[in-house]
Amino acid sequence: MRRRIFTLFLACIFLLTACGSGGSSASSSASSPPPEDHSSGVSPAPEAPAAPLTLAAYPAVSFHPLLSGNKANLTLAPLMYEGLFSVDSQFQAVPLLCAGYTVSEDRLTWTFTLRSGVTFSDGTPLTGETAAQALQTALDPASRYAGRLSCVQSIRGSEGKLILTLSQPNSSLPLLLDIPLALGSGARPLGTGPYLLTDSGGSLSLTARSDWWQGPGSLPVQEIRLASLTKPDELVSAFNSGEVSLIDVDLTGNSELGSSGSYQVWDYPSTDLLYLGFNTSQGLCQDPEIRRAVARAIDRDTLSETIFARHTAAAAIPVHPVSPLYNGELAKRLSYDPSILTGLELKGRALTLLVNIENTAKSAAANEIARQLQEAGLRVTVERLPWEEYTASLAARDFDLYLGEVYLTPDFDLSALIAPGGTLNYGGWEDGVISGLLSAFRTAEGELRQSAAASLYRYLCQQAPIAPICFKNGSVLTQYGRLDQLNPTQYNVFYDLSQWTVP
User: Fold this and answer.
1) CATH domain 270-473 topology
2) CA–CA distance, 243 with 407 (Å, rounded to integer)
3) pLDDT, tens digit, for every residue of 212-225?
4) Would you list the domain boundaries of the chain?
Protein backbone atom coordinates (compact mmCIF):
# COMPACT_ATOMS: atom_id res chain seq x y z
CA MET A 1 0.00 0.00 0.00
CA ARG A 2 1.29 3.41 -0.93
CA ARG A 3 -0.30 6.65 0.12
CA ARG A 4 0.36 10.32 -0.35
CA ILE A 5 -0.59 12.03 2.85
CA PHE A 6 -0.67 15.71 3.72
CA THR A 7 -0.23 16.90 7.28
CA LEU A 8 -0.32 13.39 8.53
CA PHE A 9 0.66 12.63 12.12
CA LEU A 10 3.84 10.60 12.06
CA ALA A 11 3.80 7.50 14.20
CA CYS A 12 7.39 6.36 14.28
CA ILE A 13 8.77 3.75 16.61
CA PHE A 14 11.74 1.51 16.67
CA LEU A 15 10.11 -1.85 17.05
CA LEU A 16 10.27 -3.53 20.44
CA THR A 17 9.40 -7.08 19.59
CA ALA A 18 7.56 -9.34 21.89
CA CYS A 19 9.75 -12.21 20.73
CA GLY A 20 13.04 -12.22 18.89
CA SER A 21 13.50 -14.02 15.62
CA GLY A 22 14.05 -17.69 15.63
CA GLY A 23 16.82 -17.11 13.09
CA SER A 24 18.08 -14.07 12.36
CA SER A 25 15.13 -16.32 3.27
CA ALA A 26 13.71 -15.36 -9.27
CA SER A 27 10.90 -13.61 -9.95
CA SER A 28 10.19 -9.97 -10.59
CA SER A 29 8.09 -8.13 -8.02
CA ALA A 30 4.60 -7.01 -8.89
CA SER A 31 4.18 -3.34 -9.59
CA SER A 32 2.20 -1.28 -7.11
CA PRO A 33 -0.28 1.49 -7.88
CA PRO A 34 0.90 5.07 -7.49
CA PRO A 35 0.39 6.76 -4.14
CA GLU A 36 -3.19 7.85 -3.48
CA ASP A 37 -3.93 11.56 -3.25
CA HIS A 38 -5.16 12.62 0.19
CA SER A 39 -4.62 16.35 -0.27
CA SER A 40 -8.21 17.35 0.72
CA GLY A 41 -8.02 20.21 -1.73
CA VAL A 42 -5.09 21.90 -0.03
CA SER A 43 -2.98 23.93 -2.46
CA PRO A 44 0.74 23.25 -2.20
CA ALA A 45 3.15 26.06 -1.51
CA PRO A 46 5.17 27.48 -4.43
CA GLU A 47 7.91 25.09 -5.45
CA ALA A 48 11.37 25.84 -4.16
CA PRO A 49 14.54 24.58 -5.82
CA ALA A 50 14.92 20.88 -5.22
CA ALA A 51 17.04 20.13 -2.17
CA PRO A 52 19.85 17.59 -2.44
CA LEU A 53 18.87 14.02 -1.64
CA THR A 54 19.75 13.70 2.04
CA LEU A 55 19.57 10.63 4.26
CA ALA A 56 20.11 10.19 7.99
CA ALA A 57 23.22 8.63 9.50
CA TYR A 58 24.71 8.13 12.94
CA PRO A 59 28.49 8.44 12.36
CA ALA A 60 29.39 7.77 16.00
CA VAL A 61 28.19 4.15 15.72
CA SER A 62 29.04 1.32 13.36
CA PHE A 63 27.96 1.17 9.71
CA HIS A 64 28.77 -2.55 9.52
CA PRO A 65 25.75 -4.19 7.80
CA LEU A 66 26.09 -7.40 9.84
CA LEU A 67 27.28 -6.14 13.22
CA SER A 68 25.55 -2.76 13.61
CA GLY A 69 22.30 -2.34 15.52
CA ASN A 70 21.51 1.19 14.37
CA LYS A 71 18.37 1.24 12.21
CA ALA A 72 19.24 4.37 10.22
CA ASN A 73 22.74 3.11 9.36
CA LEU A 74 21.35 -0.30 8.42
CA THR A 75 18.85 1.43 6.12
CA LEU A 76 21.84 2.83 4.19
CA ALA A 77 23.54 -0.57 3.89
CA PRO A 78 22.11 -1.61 0.45
CA LEU A 79 23.69 1.51 -1.07
CA MET A 80 27.16 0.28 -0.05
CA TYR A 81 26.85 -3.51 0.18
CA GLU A 82 25.38 -6.32 -1.90
CA GLY A 83 24.64 -9.98 -1.33
CA LEU A 84 24.74 -13.06 -3.52
CA PHE A 85 20.98 -12.59 -3.92
CA SER A 86 18.38 -9.96 -3.18
CA VAL A 87 14.83 -10.65 -1.99
CA ASP A 88 11.96 -9.00 -3.83
CA SER A 89 8.60 -7.83 -2.50
CA GLN A 90 7.07 -11.32 -2.98
CA PHE A 91 9.90 -12.88 -0.95
CA GLN A 92 11.54 -14.48 -3.96
CA ALA A 93 15.30 -14.75 -4.43
CA VAL A 94 16.79 -12.65 -7.25
CA PRO A 95 20.45 -13.27 -8.25
CA LEU A 96 22.72 -10.30 -7.59
CA LEU A 97 26.40 -11.14 -7.12
CA CYS A 98 25.63 -14.77 -7.93
CA ALA A 99 25.82 -15.70 -11.62
CA GLY A 100 24.52 -19.24 -11.09
CA TYR A 101 24.76 -22.24 -8.79
CA THR A 102 24.74 -26.03 -8.60
CA VAL A 103 23.66 -28.38 -5.82
CA SER A 104 25.09 -31.79 -5.00
CA GLU A 105 22.97 -34.92 -5.26
CA ASP A 106 22.60 -35.13 -1.47
CA ARG A 107 21.50 -31.45 -1.43
CA LEU A 108 24.18 -30.56 1.14
CA THR A 109 26.83 -28.84 -0.99
CA TRP A 110 25.97 -25.64 -2.85
CA THR A 111 28.44 -24.14 -5.31
CA PHE A 112 27.76 -20.52 -6.28
CA THR A 113 29.50 -19.01 -9.31
CA LEU A 114 30.29 -15.35 -8.64
CA ARG A 115 29.62 -12.56 -11.09
CA SER A 116 32.84 -11.52 -12.85
CA GLY A 117 34.19 -7.98 -12.91
CA VAL A 118 32.94 -7.07 -9.43
CA THR A 119 35.22 -5.22 -7.02
CA PHE A 120 35.00 -3.93 -3.50
CA SER A 121 35.18 -0.17 -3.02
CA ASP A 122 39.01 -0.19 -2.65
CA GLY A 123 39.45 -2.13 -5.89
CA THR A 124 39.82 -5.58 -4.29
CA PRO A 125 38.27 -8.13 -6.69
CA LEU A 126 35.31 -10.21 -5.60
CA THR A 127 36.70 -13.73 -5.64
CA GLY A 128 35.68 -16.97 -4.03
CA GLU A 129 38.18 -16.30 -1.26
CA THR A 130 37.11 -12.70 -0.54
CA ALA A 131 33.42 -13.68 -0.69
CA ALA A 132 34.06 -16.52 1.77
CA GLN A 133 35.93 -14.15 4.06
CA ALA A 134 33.07 -11.65 3.97
CA LEU A 135 30.35 -14.24 4.47
CA GLN A 136 32.25 -15.85 7.33
CA THR A 137 31.49 -12.75 9.40
CA ALA A 138 27.80 -13.65 9.19
CA LEU A 139 28.49 -16.74 11.30
CA ASP A 140 29.79 -14.62 14.18
CA PRO A 141 27.39 -14.89 17.15
CA ALA A 142 27.21 -11.09 17.15
CA SER A 143 25.98 -11.04 13.55
CA ARG A 144 22.36 -10.21 12.74
CA TYR A 145 22.38 -13.22 10.39
CA ALA A 146 23.99 -15.88 12.57
CA GLY A 147 20.71 -17.67 13.26
CA ARG A 148 19.65 -18.06 9.65
CA LEU A 149 22.98 -19.72 8.80
CA SER A 150 22.85 -22.22 11.65
CA CYS A 151 22.67 -25.08 9.14
CA VAL A 152 25.94 -24.00 7.41
CA GLN A 153 28.86 -26.24 8.38
CA SER A 154 31.55 -24.64 6.25
CA ILE A 155 32.20 -21.77 3.83
CA ARG A 156 35.10 -21.76 1.38
CA GLY A 157 36.07 -20.07 -1.85
CA SER A 158 37.83 -21.43 -4.91
CA GLU A 159 38.43 -20.04 -8.43
CA GLY A 160 35.53 -17.60 -8.59
CA LYS A 161 33.16 -19.87 -6.70
CA LEU A 162 31.72 -19.85 -3.19
CA ILE A 163 31.04 -23.28 -1.71
CA LEU A 164 28.70 -23.81 1.25
CA THR A 165 28.28 -27.16 2.98
CA LEU A 166 25.11 -27.68 5.01
CA SER A 167 24.32 -29.97 7.92
CA GLN A 168 20.85 -30.67 6.48
CA PRO A 169 19.18 -29.94 3.13
CA ASN A 170 17.51 -26.56 2.69
CA SER A 171 16.08 -25.72 -0.72
CA SER A 172 15.52 -22.11 0.40
CA LEU A 173 19.21 -21.34 0.83
CA PRO A 174 19.28 -18.63 -1.90
CA LEU A 175 16.57 -16.75 0.02
CA LEU A 176 18.85 -16.69 3.04
CA LEU A 177 21.84 -15.37 1.10
CA ASP A 178 20.81 -11.76 0.64
CA ILE A 179 23.39 -11.19 3.40
CA PRO A 180 25.57 -8.16 2.58
CA LEU A 181 29.15 -9.10 1.73
CA ALA A 182 31.23 -6.76 3.91
CA LEU A 183 35.00 -7.17 3.79
CA GLY A 184 36.45 -6.37 7.20
CA SER A 185 35.08 -6.26 10.73
CA GLY A 186 35.53 -2.55 11.45
CA ALA A 187 32.83 0.10 11.68
CA ARG A 188 33.09 0.93 7.96
CA PRO A 189 33.99 -2.25 6.04
CA LEU A 190 34.40 -2.50 2.27
CA GLY A 191 31.42 -3.32 0.07
CA THR A 192 30.64 -3.96 -3.60
CA GLY A 193 27.63 -1.61 -3.74
CA PRO A 194 27.09 1.44 -5.93
CA TYR A 195 28.12 4.07 -3.38
CA LEU A 196 31.16 4.75 -1.24
CA LEU A 197 30.94 6.38 2.17
CA THR A 198 33.15 9.47 2.13
CA ASP A 199 34.09 11.89 4.89
CA SER A 200 35.16 15.42 4.00
CA GLY A 201 36.05 17.44 7.06
CA GLY A 202 33.45 15.64 9.16
CA SER A 203 30.76 15.99 6.47
CA LEU A 204 29.56 12.56 5.37
CA SER A 205 28.18 11.66 1.97
CA LEU A 206 27.63 8.67 -0.30
CA THR A 207 29.46 9.09 -3.60
CA ALA A 208 28.70 6.99 -6.67
CA ARG A 209 31.51 4.59 -7.53
CA SER A 210 32.92 5.02 -11.03
CA ASP A 211 33.97 1.35 -11.00
CA TRP A 212 30.66 -0.15 -9.87
CA TRP A 213 29.97 -3.29 -11.88
CA GLN A 214 26.54 -2.09 -13.07
CA GLY A 215 27.93 1.32 -14.04
CA PRO A 216 27.29 4.64 -12.26
CA GLY A 217 25.15 5.82 -15.18
CA SER A 218 22.25 3.67 -13.92
CA LEU A 219 22.06 5.60 -10.64
CA PRO A 220 19.53 8.43 -10.19
CA VAL A 221 22.03 10.65 -8.32
CA GLN A 222 25.80 10.71 -8.11
CA GLU A 223 25.97 12.01 -4.55
CA ILE A 224 23.75 11.55 -1.51
CA ARG A 225 24.29 13.82 1.45
CA LEU A 226 24.15 12.38 4.96
CA ALA A 227 22.73 14.33 7.87
CA SER A 228 24.78 13.40 10.93
CA LEU A 229 22.57 12.64 13.94
CA THR A 230 23.45 11.65 17.48
CA LYS A 231 20.18 10.82 19.30
CA PRO A 232 17.37 8.44 18.26
CA ASP A 233 14.63 11.08 18.48
CA GLU A 234 16.54 13.35 16.09
CA LEU A 235 15.50 11.17 13.16
CA VAL A 236 11.84 12.23 13.37
CA SER A 237 12.60 15.91 13.84
CA ALA A 238 15.11 15.88 10.97
CA PHE A 239 12.46 14.50 8.66
CA ASN A 240 9.78 16.85 9.96
CA SER A 241 12.03 19.84 9.27
CA GLY A 242 12.82 18.66 5.73
CA GLU A 243 16.50 18.14 6.53
CA VAL A 244 16.19 14.44 5.67
CA SER A 245 14.51 13.28 2.44
CA LEU A 246 13.61 9.72 3.42
CA ILE A 247 13.19 7.58 6.54
CA ASP A 248 12.18 3.96 7.14
CA VAL A 249 9.67 3.69 10.00
CA ASP A 250 7.00 1.62 11.69
CA LEU A 251 3.57 3.25 11.40
CA THR A 252 1.63 0.54 13.20
CA GLY A 253 2.31 1.92 16.67
CA ASN A 254 1.93 5.18 18.50
CA SER A 255 4.99 6.88 19.83
CA GLU A 256 6.53 10.31 19.38
CA LEU A 257 4.13 12.33 17.24
CA GLY A 258 5.11 15.06 14.88
CA SER A 259 3.97 16.69 11.68
CA SER A 260 6.11 17.24 8.64
CA GLY A 261 3.94 19.28 6.33
CA SER A 262 3.46 16.99 3.35
CA TYR A 263 5.01 13.68 2.49
CA GLN A 264 4.40 10.34 0.85
CA VAL A 265 4.19 6.90 2.42
CA TRP A 266 5.43 3.81 0.60
CA ASP A 267 4.45 0.63 2.43
CA TYR A 268 6.22 -2.66 1.88
CA PRO A 269 5.39 -6.20 3.10
CA SER A 270 7.51 -7.75 5.82
CA THR A 271 7.98 -11.08 7.58
CA ASP A 272 7.17 -9.43 10.94
CA LEU A 273 4.42 -11.72 12.23
CA LEU A 274 2.03 -10.83 15.06
CA TYR A 275 0.39 -13.90 16.52
CA LEU A 276 -1.53 -15.23 19.50
CA GLY A 277 0.37 -17.93 21.34
CA PHE A 278 -1.28 -20.69 23.40
CA ASN A 279 -0.07 -22.56 26.45
CA THR A 280 -0.57 -26.04 25.03
CA SER A 281 0.99 -27.84 28.01
CA GLN A 282 -1.60 -26.99 30.66
CA GLY A 283 -4.94 -25.31 31.20
CA LEU A 284 -7.86 -24.77 28.86
CA CYS A 285 -5.65 -24.31 25.80
CA GLN A 286 -4.36 -27.88 25.93
CA ASP A 287 -7.42 -28.74 23.84
CA PRO A 288 -6.86 -28.12 20.10
CA GLU A 289 -10.61 -27.64 19.63
CA ILE A 290 -10.46 -24.67 22.00
CA ARG A 291 -7.41 -23.29 20.22
CA ARG A 292 -9.07 -23.60 16.80
CA ALA A 293 -12.21 -21.88 18.05
CA VAL A 294 -10.21 -19.01 19.58
CA ALA A 295 -8.30 -18.57 16.31
CA ARG A 296 -11.61 -18.30 14.39
CA ALA A 297 -13.01 -15.77 16.89
CA ILE A 298 -10.33 -13.16 16.11
CA ASP A 299 -11.45 -10.48 13.65
CA ARG A 300 -8.12 -9.84 11.94
CA ASP A 301 -9.46 -7.25 9.51
CA THR A 302 -10.76 -5.08 12.35
CA LEU A 303 -7.42 -5.31 14.14
CA SER A 304 -5.60 -4.26 10.98
CA GLU A 305 -7.88 -1.33 10.24
CA THR A 306 -8.56 0.08 13.69
CA ILE A 307 -5.49 -0.78 15.74
CA PHE A 308 -2.69 -0.82 13.18
CA ALA A 309 -3.96 1.95 10.88
CA ARG A 310 -4.09 -0.45 7.89
CA HIS A 311 -0.33 -0.87 7.93
CA THR A 312 -0.62 -4.64 8.25
CA ALA A 313 -1.74 -7.59 6.13
CA ALA A 314 -4.24 -9.83 7.92
CA ALA A 315 -3.22 -13.49 7.72
CA ALA A 316 -4.83 -16.60 9.19
CA ILE A 317 -1.90 -18.81 8.18
CA PRO A 318 1.77 -18.08 9.02
CA VAL A 319 2.94 -16.90 5.60
CA HIS A 320 2.51 -13.49 4.01
CA PRO A 321 -0.39 -13.20 1.52
CA VAL A 322 1.97 -11.89 -1.20
CA SER A 323 4.11 -15.04 -1.05
CA PRO A 324 3.53 -17.80 -3.63
CA LEU A 325 3.36 -20.15 -0.64
CA TYR A 326 0.15 -18.49 0.61
CA ASN A 327 -2.89 -20.75 0.32
CA GLY A 328 -5.92 -18.56 -0.28
CA GLU A 329 -8.42 -21.42 -0.19
CA LEU A 330 -7.17 -22.60 3.18
CA ALA A 331 -7.22 -19.04 4.51
CA LYS A 332 -10.89 -18.70 3.48
CA ARG A 333 -11.76 -21.77 5.54
CA LEU A 334 -10.22 -20.02 8.55
CA SER A 335 -12.19 -16.80 8.19
CA TYR A 336 -13.71 -14.96 11.16
CA ASP A 337 -16.49 -17.02 12.74
CA PRO A 338 -17.03 -16.38 16.49
CA SER A 339 -20.03 -18.72 16.54
CA ILE A 340 -17.63 -21.67 16.74
CA LEU A 341 -16.29 -20.44 20.07
CA THR A 342 -19.78 -19.48 21.26
CA GLY A 343 -20.96 -23.00 20.53
CA LEU A 344 -18.47 -24.51 22.95
CA GLU A 345 -20.39 -23.06 25.91
CA LEU A 346 -17.40 -21.80 27.87
CA LYS A 347 -19.29 -19.48 30.21
CA GLY A 348 -17.48 -19.19 33.48
CA ARG A 349 -14.16 -20.21 31.98
CA ALA A 350 -11.45 -17.55 31.95
CA LEU A 351 -8.05 -17.05 30.33
CA THR A 352 -5.18 -14.64 30.93
CA LEU A 353 -3.59 -12.88 27.94
CA LEU A 354 -0.05 -11.54 28.38
CA VAL A 355 1.23 -8.51 26.48
CA ASN A 356 4.30 -6.31 26.67
CA ILE A 357 3.24 -3.00 28.27
CA GLU A 358 5.93 -0.92 26.52
CA ASN A 359 4.36 -1.39 23.10
CA THR A 360 1.16 0.66 23.06
CA ALA A 361 -0.11 -0.68 19.73
CA LYS A 362 0.19 -4.28 20.86
CA SER A 363 -1.38 -3.41 24.19
CA ALA A 364 -4.34 -1.94 22.30
CA ALA A 365 -4.46 -5.04 20.08
CA ALA A 366 -4.54 -7.29 23.16
CA ASN A 367 -7.49 -5.31 24.52
CA GLU A 368 -9.34 -5.69 21.22
CA ILE A 369 -8.63 -9.43 21.04
CA ALA A 370 -9.90 -9.84 24.62
CA ARG A 371 -13.05 -7.90 23.75
CA GLN A 372 -13.70 -10.05 20.67
CA LEU A 373 -13.21 -13.29 22.60
CA GLN A 374 -15.45 -12.11 25.42
CA GLU A 375 -18.20 -11.30 22.92
CA ALA A 376 -17.89 -14.90 21.75
CA GLY A 377 -18.37 -16.16 25.29
CA LEU A 378 -14.84 -16.55 26.65
CA ARG A 379 -13.76 -14.30 29.51
CA VAL A 380 -10.23 -12.96 28.98
CA THR A 381 -8.12 -10.84 31.32
CA VAL A 382 -5.29 -8.84 29.76
CA GLU A 383 -2.14 -8.75 31.87
CA ARG A 384 0.29 -5.99 30.82
CA LEU A 385 3.85 -6.65 31.91
CA PRO A 386 7.18 -4.85 31.55
CA TRP A 387 9.50 -6.52 29.06
CA GLU A 388 11.58 -8.41 31.62
CA GLU A 389 8.53 -9.76 33.43
CA TYR A 390 6.81 -10.55 30.15
CA THR A 391 9.71 -12.66 28.86
CA ALA A 392 10.15 -14.32 32.26
CA SER A 393 6.48 -15.33 32.28
CA LEU A 394 6.83 -16.78 28.79
CA ALA A 395 9.90 -18.75 29.78
CA ALA A 396 8.12 -20.08 32.90
CA ARG A 397 5.03 -20.90 30.84
CA ASP A 398 3.00 -18.80 33.26
CA PHE A 399 0.19 -17.79 30.90
CA ASP A 400 -2.84 -19.01 28.96
CA LEU A 401 -2.40 -16.74 25.94
CA TYR A 402 0.26 -14.25 24.89
CA LEU A 403 0.51 -11.71 22.09
CA GLY A 404 3.79 -12.41 20.33
CA GLU A 405 5.81 -10.91 17.52
CA VAL A 406 8.59 -12.48 15.49
CA TYR A 407 10.65 -11.62 12.42
CA LEU A 408 10.56 -14.74 10.29
CA THR A 409 13.28 -15.38 7.76
CA PRO A 410 12.33 -14.80 4.10
CA ASP A 411 11.62 -18.51 3.65
CA PHE A 412 8.98 -18.34 6.42
CA ASP A 413 10.64 -21.07 8.46
CA LEU A 414 8.53 -21.73 11.56
CA SER A 415 10.88 -24.12 13.35
CA ALA A 416 11.70 -21.78 16.22
CA LEU A 417 8.00 -21.23 16.94
CA ILE A 418 6.56 -24.71 16.67
CA ALA A 419 9.26 -27.37 16.54
CA PRO A 420 9.88 -29.41 19.70
CA GLY A 421 12.49 -27.51 21.69
CA GLY A 422 12.19 -24.43 19.43
CA THR A 423 13.65 -21.30 21.00
CA LEU A 424 10.31 -19.48 20.65
CA ASN A 425 8.04 -22.45 21.39
CA TYR A 426 6.87 -20.85 24.62
CA GLY A 427 3.61 -22.77 24.61
CA GLY A 428 5.45 -26.08 24.92
CA TRP A 429 3.72 -27.65 21.94
CA GLU A 430 5.08 -31.12 21.20
CA ASP A 431 3.85 -33.13 18.26
CA GLY A 432 5.27 -36.20 16.60
CA VAL A 433 4.11 -35.14 13.13
CA ILE A 434 5.37 -31.58 12.89
CA SER A 435 9.10 -32.31 12.62
CA GLY A 436 8.52 -34.37 9.48
CA LEU A 437 6.33 -31.68 7.94
CA LEU A 438 8.90 -28.97 8.67
CA SER A 439 11.66 -31.11 7.17
CA ALA A 440 9.60 -31.79 4.04
CA PHE A 441 8.93 -28.06 3.71
CA ARG A 442 12.63 -27.17 3.97
CA THR A 443 13.78 -29.73 1.41
CA ALA A 444 11.01 -29.54 -1.20
CA GLU A 445 11.61 -27.61 -4.43
CA GLY A 446 9.43 -26.06 -7.12
CA GLU A 447 5.82 -27.18 -7.14
CA LEU A 448 6.62 -29.76 -4.49
CA ARG A 449 7.51 -26.93 -2.13
CA GLN A 450 4.05 -25.39 -2.48
CA SER A 451 2.52 -28.80 -1.85
CA ALA A 452 4.71 -29.27 1.23
CA ALA A 453 3.74 -25.80 2.47
CA ALA A 454 0.04 -26.59 2.02
CA SER A 455 0.41 -29.81 4.04
CA LEU A 456 2.25 -27.96 6.79
CA TYR A 457 -0.32 -25.15 7.01
CA ARG A 458 -3.29 -27.53 6.96
CA TYR A 459 -1.85 -29.44 9.89
CA LEU A 460 -1.11 -26.24 11.79
CA CYS A 461 -4.69 -25.13 11.27
CA GLN A 462 -5.92 -28.41 12.74
CA GLN A 463 -3.65 -28.25 15.78
CA ALA A 464 -3.43 -24.44 16.16
CA PRO A 465 -0.32 -24.16 18.37
CA ILE A 466 -0.39 -20.46 17.45
CA ALA A 467 -3.02 -18.21 15.87
CA PRO A 468 -1.47 -15.91 13.23
CA ILE A 469 -3.01 -12.44 13.23
CA CYS A 470 -1.21 -10.27 10.69
CA PHE A 471 2.08 -9.32 9.11
CA LYS A 472 3.21 -5.77 9.77
CA ASN A 473 4.16 -3.48 6.90
CA GLY A 474 7.24 -1.35 6.96
CA SER A 475 6.86 2.23 5.71
CA VAL A 476 9.21 4.48 3.79
CA LEU A 477 8.37 8.17 4.17
CA THR A 478 9.63 10.68 1.61
CA GLN A 479 9.25 14.43 1.37
CA TYR A 480 6.37 15.18 -0.98
CA GLY A 481 7.46 15.53 -4.61
CA ARG A 482 11.08 14.76 -3.77
CA LEU A 483 11.24 11.14 -4.92
CA ASP A 484 9.10 8.89 -7.10
CA GLN A 485 8.92 5.34 -8.44
CA LEU A 486 10.06 3.73 -5.20
CA ASN A 487 9.67 -0.03 -4.85
CA PRO A 488 10.95 -0.73 -1.32
CA THR A 489 11.32 -4.18 0.17
CA GLN A 490 11.84 -5.32 3.72
CA TYR A 491 15.54 -5.84 3.12
CA ASN A 492 16.25 -2.93 0.81
CA VAL A 493 14.26 0.31 0.75
CA PHE A 494 16.38 1.25 -2.30
CA TYR A 495 15.29 -1.79 -4.30
CA ASP A 496 15.12 -0.95 -8.04
CA LEU A 497 17.06 2.25 -7.34
CA SER A 498 17.75 2.71 -11.05
CA GLN A 499 14.03 3.28 -11.60
CA TRP A 500 13.77 6.14 -9.07
CA THR A 501 12.90 9.62 -10.22
CA VAL A 502 14.82 12.31 -8.33
CA PRO A 503 13.86 15.85 -9.46
Assistant:
1) Dipeptide-binding Protein; domain 3 (3.10.105)
2) 31
3) 999 988 999 999 99
4) 270-473
